């Protein structure tokens, strides 16, 4: 479901599931649907009559699952920090500007 604008695509998917438009969702890996919080997403889908099927379901220990979740969180926030670099000059200019 790569669209180039994943947050909007996920919000659209949530809206469509909530509206009852989607009854079954097939994903290759659960982390392709959402980086973390899959169980919450699955619960929301089930509450709205949508069944989520994961094709490549890995069996992970609780420790392995926690490590993968932490890595996903670190990756997400690292990407956000990297994206801020393009705004670095603008942010610096705002901070250094004298208040008027």
UniProtKB/TrEMBL annotation:
SUPFAM superfamilies: Resolvase-like. It holds the Pfam family Resolvase. InterPro entries: Recombinase/Transposase-rel, Resolv_N, Resolvase-like_N_sf. Residues 12-88 form the Resolvase/invertase-type recombinase catalytic domain. GO terms for molecular function: DNA binding; DNA strand exchange activity. PANTHER family: PTHR36172, RESOLVASE-RELATED. This is Resolvase, N terminal domain. It comes from Desulfocicer vacuolatum DSM 3385.
């Amino acid at each position: 479901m790569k669209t180039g604008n994943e947050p909007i695509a996920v919000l659209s998917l949530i809206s469509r599931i909530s509206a009852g438009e989607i009854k079954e969702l097939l994903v290759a890996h659960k982390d392709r649907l959402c980086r973390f919080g899959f169980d919450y997403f699955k619960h929301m889908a089930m509450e709205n009559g949508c069944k989520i099927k994961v094709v490549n379901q890995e069996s992970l220990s609780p420790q392995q699952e926690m490590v993968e979740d932490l890595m996903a969180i670190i990756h997400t926030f690292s990407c956000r920090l990297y994206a801020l670099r393009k705004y670095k000059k603008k942010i610096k200019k705002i901070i250094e500007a004298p208040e008027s």
